[in-house]
Amino acid sequence: xxxxxxxxxxxxxxxxxxxxxxxxVHNDSMRFRKNMERIGEIMAYELSKTLDYKEVKIQTPLxxxxxxTVAEPVVLCSILRAGLALHTGFMSIFDDKIK
Length: 99
Known about the structure:
There is one protein chain. This protein is about 45% helix and about 15% strand. It is of the alpha+beta class.
């Protein structure tokens, strides 16, 4: 298993982590939930860098574009309650690739 410490680099992720850890923000349940969802989106984006991709041809209005897309469907499984907000963030990134 490979471990990625994405919070060690300066990014907006650190801002969201700071807010969910801050006791003054911690009582704002809607901001906490939204920040967990945003963290899920960032985690999904970082995870997408490790997936397998296949080459495809896409018909655009200007012609054919050679690009890549995710090779296999993504399976998401959430731990109830604690993982639901993260799950929503993951679903917004992998919306058409979820199996």
